[in-house]
Amino acid sequence: MTVGLFFTEEHEMLRKSIREFAEKELAPHAEEWEEQGGFPDWVFTRMGELGYLGLHYPEEYGGGGGDYFCNIVLAEELARSGSGSVNMAVAVQVGMATPPILAFGTEEQKQKYLVPAIKGEKIACLGITEPNAGSDVASIQTYAEKVPGGWKVNGNKIFITNGARAHFMTLLARTEKTKGYKGMSVFLVDTDTPGFVVNRKLDKVGMRASDTAEIFFEDMFIPEDALLGEEGRGFYNIMWELQGERLIGAAAAIGGARLTLESVIEYTKERVQFGKPICKNQAIAHRIADLATKIEAAQSLVYICAWKFDHGEYPVKEISMAKLMAAQVAFEVADEALQFMGGYGYMMEYPVQRAWRDARLGRIGGGTDEIMREIIATTMGLYA
Amino acid sequence: MNLVVCVKRVPDTAESEVHIDASGKDIDKSRLSFGINECDNYAVEEAIQIKERLGGTVTVISLGPKENDEVIRMALAKGGDEAIRLEDEAFDGGDGFAVAKALAAAIKGLEFDIVFTGALADDDGYAVVPAALGELLGVPHATYVKKVEILEDGKRAKVGRELEGGLLEFLEIELPCVLGIQTGINEPRYASFKGIKQAAKKEIAIKSAADLGLDPSEVGESGSWAVLEKFTPPVVGEMAEILEGDPEETAAKLAAILKEKGLV
In the prediction, which pLDDT does B19 show? Predict the structure, then answer.
């Protein structure tokens, strides 16, 4: 593929292995997991065994010692499972809930949470979003009150991926009764702590094989050593990683778009109407050409941002552009694919509807299209 | 156990349209993806599993250009120890026998207990290499192998060969030997990232015909017993008769034909 420019031979071998794994061990279950509204824990342990949950983590914690592009490869190839849900759950495990542990954790915290998370033995979730604090993270209200020996937490979190079955949560809570970005702290919370209540598993339009929960904290006591990083620095310690995660989300979206486009191209070659395969109609062929072009453009932008990010740059504007574009292209591809399939595309028995429902989240999760545009406009100085 | 496994890189034609190229002697491979021959993937796994059980080394050998390194490295990533690639223009156009001669020359220089190959290749399907290799090395051979058990003395193996209808024929075979492995004998693993990183550091020894002490006339097209003449698509229609009419009519016609030919 692109060996030499962004990817090494190792990356390409990794790509091949993950693709094979996704196509053989995951894809055959995609529909079944969708219907069940969840996928089994063995997906985590199996991926842990293969080293796929810690590609970029240091070897001393059981990781692979790889670079950022390893996780791009992971996101692109897990998309071959045909289940956006699995890819999203893994992204939360690998790229959202655990990086702060490596960055700010004590050795004990790394041994207790990071090591088993890399093995797939502990499932992680990230607790930021609240009913009244979505894009506006600074408005979170969950409050951790300092009490003798630790903290007492009250509040609630919503749309928590992996939330119904996680073993621990990387939790963002307010530790001072101030407003705004200051006075927040991050905690590592075992989900079996008394007062950690999974209120309900949410019923979603897509990504149905991923469990998404609403969680309540009711006088939940957590000890001193649950604090991750410095007290009061929580917002900054959590938000720094969001850029990297947006790129992973963009890579996953493009991986999914590629799979969807490949399958619908096969369909348009086989589907004969008016005496010829429908792909031989310019009305279809040119649109496929457009979609392929958009995928390529979005992917190039993701790769260039990933390269900058991996080299220590922090290109917030470009990453927001990549995330915005990838999410829109992925949904457009799924929507057009459904259109090319006509009545069959609208039927639940074909996987294109799942891709369509899954891809729709890309424009909302990890920062909405609107927030991406807002970041781009702001960094362009339009509001200055 | 010193184990050798021979692997071939082939185009994936299972889910692609295949067209004959302008030379008429090959297919157009420009839009095909390539990978390890399916049987060979199982052969690699079998060799690695035996090594893991009994110790020893696995040497991976492949004949072909630099592109073959990808299948070699993947075998190394899964647990192979050493690798040799046979590359020489003189090897071009060889049939299964000529390929076996080159492989045999490379293997003769090694200590080996078992040489594994795939039972047949996905692209040409000759299934010649395991038997020819056994003969050239002067050791026993068995192919379509779906079970391998090393006996306690370490000098013999019990080998199950797959026959029609899934029957297994069991033989006791003396080591060293050559085994042509059939798909389904095991479950090929996925390369772990650790394995991939280690494989990237391993050296692949490149050997030419001269390195192996082979004269160019012995290998490749000139050293082959069979030379590829041309590919043709199957001729359609000559033997086929399309019955027309409504279902009742066509059924009656079909019954009449079957009766006439004495088939029912």
Answer: 87
Q: What is the per-residue pLDDT across B158-214, written as a single tens digit (0 to 9) for each?
A: 999 999 888 999 999 999 999 999 999 999 999 999 999 999 999 999 999 999 999
Does residue A310 share a domain with residue A227? Answer: no
Q: Which of these three, A75, A96, A123, is where a domain ends?
A: A123
The domain limits of chain B are: 2-218, 236-264
> Would you say B8 and B36 are in contact if contact means Cβ atoms under 8 Å apart?
yes
pLDDT at A207 over 80: yes
Q: What is the CATH number of the domain that holds A158?
A: 2.40.110.10
Q: Cis peptide leading into B234, omega within 30 of 0?
A: no
- Which of A104, A99, A209 lies closest to A165, judged by CA? A209
Q: A366 and A324 in one domain?
A: yes
Residue of chain A minimizing CA distance to B16:
A266
Chain A residue with Cα closest to B71: A13
Are A116 and A136 found together in one domain? no
Q: How confident is the model over A129-170, as pLDDT tens digits?
A: 999 988 888 899 999 999 999 999 999 999 999 999 999 999
Mutate to test the interface with B, among A10, A18, A59, A267 (most CBs of B within 10 A): A10
Q: The sheet that has B57-63: what strands, in order across it? A: B168-174, B156-162, B141-150, B177-181, B114-118, B2-6, B57-63, B82-86, B204-207
Closest CA to A321 of A336, A334, A304: A304
With a pLDDT cut of 70, the percent of chain A lying above it is: 99
- A339 and A267 in contact (C-beta within 8 Å)? no
Whether A66 and A138 map to the same domain: the answer is no
Calpha distance B84→B99 (Å, rounded): 14
Residue B104 at interface with chain A, using a CB cutoff of 8 Å: no
- Closest-CA distance, A142 to chain B, in angstroms, reads 39
CA distance A78 to chain B (A): 14
Interface contacts (A, B; CB < 8 Å): 49
Q: What pLDDT, in 10s, does the model give residues B246-262? A: 889 999 999 999 998 88
Asked if the B2-218 domain carries CATH number 3.40.50.620, the reply is yes
| CB-based contact B75:B47 (threshold 8 Å) | no
Burial bucket for residue A45 (CB in 10 Å: 0-12, 13-18, 19+): middle
Using a CB-CB distance cutoff of 8 angstroms, which residues of chain B are in contact with residue A49? 192
Q: What is the DSSP letter of B141?
A: E
Residue A32 lies in a domain: yes
The total number of structural domains in chain A stands at: 3
For residues A59-77, give the mean pLDDT. 95
